[in-house]
Amino acid sequence: MEGVDYLAPERNNAQFDVDEMKIVWAGSREAFEVSDRIARLVASDPNFRKDDRTTLGRKELFKNTLRKAAYAWKRIIELRLNEEEAKRLRSFIDQPAFTDLHWGMFVPAIKGQGTDEQQEKWLPLAYKMQIIGCYAQTELGHGSNVQGLETTATFDPQTDEFVIHSPTLTSCKWWPGGLGKISTHGVIYARLITDGKDHGVHGFIVQLRSLDDHLPLPGITVGDIGMKFGNAAYNTMDNGVLRFDHVRIPRNQMLMRVSQVTREGKYVQSNVPRQLVYGTMVFVRQTIVSDASTALSRAVCIATRYSAVRRQFGSHNGSPETQVINYKTQQARLFPLLASAYAFRFVGEWLKWLYMDVTKRLEAKDFSTLPEAHACTAGLKSLTTSATADGIEECRKLCGGHGYLCSSGLPELFAVYVPACTYEGDNIVLLLQVARHLMKTVSQLGSGKMPVGTTAYMGRAEHLMQCRSDVKQAKDWLRPNVVLEAFEARAFRMSVACAKNLTKFSSPEEGFQELSADLVEAAVAHCQLIVVSKFIEKLQQDIPGKGVKQQLEILCSVYALFLLHKHHGDFLSTGCITPTQASLANEQLRSLYSQVRPNAIALVDAFNYTDHYLGSVLGRYDGNVYPKLYEEAWKDPLNDSVVPDGYHEYVRPMLKQQLRNARL
Ligand SMILES: CCCCCCCC/C=C\C/C=C/C(=O)SCCNC(=O)CCNC(=O)[C@H](O)C(C)(C)COP(=O)(O)OP(=O)(O)OC[C@H]1O[C@@H](n2cnc3c(N)ncnc32)[C@H](O)[C@@H]1OP(=O)(O)O
Ligand SMILES: Cc1cc2nc3c(=O)[nH]c(=O)nc-3n(C[C@H](O)[C@H](O)[C@H](O)COP(=O)(O)OP(=O)(O)OC[C@H]3O[C@@H](n4cnc5c(N)ncnc54)[C@H](O)[C@@H]3O)c2cc1C
Question: What positions belong to coiled-coil segments (predicted)?
Answer without folding.
Answer: none
